[in-house]
Structures are given as C-alpha cells and as structure tokens.
Specification:
Distance between the termini: 19 Å
Radius of gyration: 15 Å
Helix content: over 70%
Order of helices and strands: HHH
C-alpha cells in the first residue's frame, strides 16, 4: 500500500464516520448544529485545537 493509498483510505473512513451521525439521527444532528451556532468562535477554536493536537499525538504514537 502506497502513501497515497493510505491517505485515501483514511480520508474515506473519515467521511464514513462523519456521515454516520446525520444518517442515524438527523434531528439530533440539526439540534447540535443549532446549538453549535450559539457557541462563541473562541470556544469552538479551542476545542478544535485540542482535537487536532490529540489526533497528531495519536498519529505520532502510531508512526513512532
């Protein structure tokens, strides 16, 4: 498996995982998005930064 194949595989799984919530519970997903629209951008940015750092840590541990 090449690096490109692995990247596309991971990207495909991301799409699958991201699509499960609105597929299984579209009303709950809409409520969550409505609530998210009320959250201050700074809070969203801090949570996103935490998620990115966690993801990078996992990648680093796996590749190490």
């Amino acid at each position: 498996m090449t690096g490109t194949d692995l990247f596309l595989l991971v990207l495909g799984w991301i799409f699958v995982i991201e699509g499960l919530s609105p597929l299984i519970n579209p009303v709950g997903w809409q409520r969550m998005l409505a609530h998210l629209a009320e959250v201050p951008p700074e809070r969203i940015r801090s949570v996103a930064a935490t998620v990115v750092l966690f993801g990078l840590a996992v990648v680093w541990l796996v590749l190490d």
